[in-house]
């Protein structure tokens, strides 16, 4: 969201996002030394490649995401009220 490449653990949603769209490096969550070494190994060209991947992403606005959550919560509340 801030336009900065991210170091991401190879698990969960962030992993899926990096695999789908790029914009970061996947690292083993259980190896802190590998994270440190990966940070030191990032060169300027690689950083700019990741930035270009981020620039190519179609990010949704906060308003769009808030509307989605409002819709979800209203639907959930209507099922609770009906019970």
Structural class: mainly alpha
Count of distinct structural domains? 1
Number of E-type strands: 2
Sheet with the most strands, sense and barrel status: 2 strands, parallel
- Based on CA atoms alone, the radius of gyration comes out at 18 Å
Shape: elongated
Our count of helices gives 4
Mean model confidence by pLDDT: 92
Strand order of the largest sheet: 1-2
Folded structure, characterized:
Strands 1-2 form a two-stranded parallel sheet. The chain has one domain. The radius of gyration is 18 Å and the shape is elongated. The model has no long low-confidence stretch (mean pLDDT 92). It contains four helices and two strands; from the N terminus they run βαβααα. With 83 residues, the chain is mainly alpha-helical. Helix 1 links the parallel strand 1 and strand 2 (24-27).
């Amino acid at each position: 969201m801030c336009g900065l490449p991210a170091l991401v653990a190879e698990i969960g949603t962030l992993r899926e996002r990096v695999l789908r769209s790029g914009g970061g490096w996947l690292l083993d969550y259980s190896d802190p030394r590998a994270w440190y070494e990966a940070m030191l190994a990032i060169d300027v060209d690689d950083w700019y490649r990741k930035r270009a991947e981020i620039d190519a992403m179609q990010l949704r606005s906060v308003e769009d995401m808030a509307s989605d959550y409002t819709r979800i919560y209203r639907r959930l509340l209507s099922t609770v009220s009906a019970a």
